[in-house]
Amino acid sequence: MPFPAIRRPATGVRAVAIPWGVTRRSRARAILAALVLMTAGASSAMSQPLDVGIDAPPALAPLAARIEAMNPEAMARALAMAGLDLPPAVHVTLIAEDERRAAQTPRWVVAQAFGTDRIVIYPSRISAYPYESLEGVVLHEVAHLALERAAEGGSLPRWFHEGVAVSVESGWGLGSQLRLLLATARGPLVDDVDRLFASGSQPETATAYMLAAALVDDVRRRHGRAVPGAIARRVARGTGFDRAFWIETGDTVDEAAARAWSAYRGWRHWLPALVSPVAVWGWILGLAFVAFAVRVYRRRRRRQLWAEEADADEEDVDTCV
User: Fold this and answer.
1) Does the global pTM surpass 0.90?
2) What is the domain partition of the chain in residue ranges?
3) Residue 237: CB partners within 8 Å, gap ≥ 6?
4) Which residues, in sequence order, are bridge partners of residue 90?
């Protein structure tokens, strides 16, 4: 089932120098010329279509239609903000849960990306963190493909892959923040994240996703949203990942991780989570439950006292008789 044509975002902007000694009118003309060049570059980059094919059994045809209906420009913008380009071709395979391939894959695995152009999705499994929707899964996996293309076969660590994919897909919500408060309480290291990813356990893998996403989110906030693509392209030129990371950020991976996770444990991060509208409703529901429990306890206690008083009255009557 073919995808509609998706056009690539601009991969770069031509710099135009504007001399300080020109008049205001000539400077305005120079700025206008720069804007024209920027527009021309964007149009040129978006002239290449993305060929996407979808294989799906008849029962999953509605989900294939949802993938076709995704906004390609939004996908391109999300990747471009991370310094990445859409791949030239993507093949998506939807696997039903009753197929043999699903039975051979751990139940908590929702999707997989292979190389630079292939994605496999198990739609019935979508709901577990970090995946929240079919569209989010597609964007998440396309981000993996885009990273592989940018690195041109160079080695990127798992935490970087997953952290970038999560940050491109959805960013952070309240649920992620509250989970991360617990995940960072033990003061993890980058090596711990790699170990969690390799564990094969769904809870530990989910924790690894959160830690990786928090680290990448902090790096992008401090050093520019497009820094993932810059790091991957350095790796493509033969630089090792750790050195490429240091060149682009000025930090070692361990330093960046310590800063991201320790800062997240600070009150500036957890306080917004506790006072957000969702959290407020959670507190209200929690207080309502406590009030209900107290009322039930008092009612039971009152009935117990009544029963004890009734027993005492019967003993008095028996004594008098």
Assistant:
1) no
2) 155-275, 281-321
3) none
4) 52
